[in-house]
Amino acid sequence: QVQLVESGGGLVQAGGSLRLSCAVSGSIFGIDGMGWHRQAPGKQRELVARIGSGGTTNYADSVKGRFTISRDNAKNTVYLQMNSLKPEDTAVYYCDADVYNTYVNLRNYWGQGTQVTVSS
Fold this sequence. Notes:
This protein has strands at 2-7, 10-13, 18-26, 30-39, 46-51, 57-59, 67-72, 77-82, 91-100, 106-110, 114-119. It is mainly β. It is elongated, with a radius of gyration of 14 Å.
């Protein structure tokens, strides 16, 4: 059993910053890619940022230069530093992780989501 728990969401004014965290726990042999996604009301879930096991990152065009994804492998945690927030960043943010339960068994897991609201 693997659990992902997000934290750090909340209400912030436009131009402000938030830092999201997602801790992975449970039966973990190793973790490959980790990522953040978001879903605004009435819209499809979209990828925000992803980081590979070696630290390679990719970002949605809408957040490039404002958001930074990072990970602490010792803590099995992925972070999303969000700066210069805009009202259009308002959404529920979800983390995901590709977790090896055994040496060869790789599965994708998701967190329950954390609300980020940016007021204008």
